[in-house]
Amino acid sequence: MERIILHIDMDAFFASVEQRDHEEYRGKPVIVGGLGPRGVVSTASYEARKFGVHSAQAMAIARRRCPGAVFLHPDHARYSAVSRQIFSILSRFSPVIEKLSIDEGFLDLTGMERLMDSPRAYGEAIKRAVREETGLTASVGVAPNKFLAKLASDMEKPDGLVVIRPEDAERVLAPLPVSRIFGVGKKTEERLASLGLKTIGQLAVADRQKLARALGDRMAAQLLSLAHGLDDRSVEPTRAVQSIGREETFNEDIRSREEAERVLLSLSEEVGWRLRREGLAARTVTLKLRFASFDTYTRQQTFPEPVSYDEDIFAAAQSLFRAFPLPPGQGIRLLGVTAGNLSAGGEISLFDDHEKKDRLYDAIDKLKGKFGENVLTRAALTKPKEEQG
Ligand code: TTP
Ligand code: MG
Predict the structure, then answer these.
(1) For a pocket test of ligand 1, which of 8, 43, 137, 140 has the largest count of ligand atoms closer than 8 A to its C-beta?
(2) Which of 101, 199, 295, 299 could be joined to 320 by an S-S link, Cβ 3.0–4.6 Å?
(3) Could you say which DSSP state residue 285 is in?
(4) Is 47 helix (H, G, I), strand (E, B) or coil?
(5) Distance from Cα 206 to the centre of ligand 2, integer Å
(6) DSSP character for 351?
(7) Is 104 tagged catalytic?
C-alpha cells in the first residue's frame, strides 16, 4: 500500500521561540548558544544565518561574523515546553508519531486520506495549527516514505511545504548531491566521487556490481534503492523513556573518594543535560557502584519534586556515595548515575536555600579546580557503556 509520511521540523527553533517571546528581537539576527569563551552556537535565526552563522559553530566565530546580533543563553525549559505543545498538536493528526528531536518528527498519515482532500491539505492544516497555537512556523514535507519526507521538509525552509509524489521522486532526487542521502558521510561521498558518482541521479543508474565492489553488497543495495526514492522504514512511535543514565567503567580502578566524586559530577552533568534536552525531570536518582571484585551495588534517593538540574542530581549521587562504606582494599571499577521516575519537566531546583547551594558549588568548583576544567569533556569522550530506557 502506498504510504503517506509527513516530516515536520520547526524553523530556527530556539531562536524563533525567543523572537516570539521578545518583540524587540523580531526581524533581528538572534544567536542562541553558550556565551562563555568556549561556547558553541545552538542555533541562529534566519537573519543571522545570512552572516554565515550556524549551529555547532564556535560562538567566537559567530560573534566575529555577526557582531550586531542579539546573543542569548538557551532556555531549555521553555523550548521543551513549546516542544511538548507542538507534539500534542501533532497527536491530533495521527496516533503514529516518531519524535526525532525536540523540534522534529515523523507522522504516518496512511489511511487518513479520507479525512482530508490531499496530502498537501494535511501539511497545510498541520502548519496552520502549529502557527495558530504556538505562534511559530514549521517546515513540512509529505512523501511516500521517511527519506523523501525529510528531504522535502528541508527544501523550502523556512515556512516550507513540499509534497513529493511517488511518481516525481526520481526527478526530484536526480540533481541532488549524494550527500543528501542519510548514511552517506564524507567517506562514502569520496568513494562515490571516485566512481564518478556525484549526484543521486548518477547513483541511481550506476552499475550495481561496481558499486558493490566499492562499498559492499549491503551498502550498495541500500544506496541504490534510496537513489530511486525507495525507503521502507516505518514510522516507529516513540515510546516514553523510562530512565536516563550514564555509567563509566574505568581502565584503572579508582581508589580515592575525591576522584570518584569528580566522576559522579561529570556523569550527573551529562544526565542533567540529557534530561533537560528531552524536557524531562526525575523523581529518583540511582547511584551504581561496582568494585574490583565485581560486586555491584545500587542506592537510590527519591525527591519530593521532580528535578532536572545537574546540581540536584549530583547532590543526590554524592550523598548516596558518601553514605556508602567502601570495602577496604577494593578499588572502584564502575560508577553510574541514573535519573528515573521521569515526568515532563519544568525546571525545579531543590536548592531554594541559597546557602546550601553556595556550599555545593564550592564543592563542585573545588573538584573541577583540582582535576581540571574538562570534567564534562571526559565523560563526553567516553561512549555510553550502557543506556537504560
Ligand atoms: P534544528 O532543527 O537542526 O535547527 P533549527 O530548528 O534551529 O533550524 P532549521 O530547522 O530551521 O534549520 O535543531 C533544532 C534545535 O536544536 C535548534 O533550534 C537548537 C538545537 N540544536 C543545538 O542545540 N545544537 C545543534 O548543533 C543543532 C543542530 C540544534
Ligand atoms: Mg528545526
Answers:
(1) 43
(2) 299
(3) E
(4) helix
(5) 33
(6) T
(7) yes
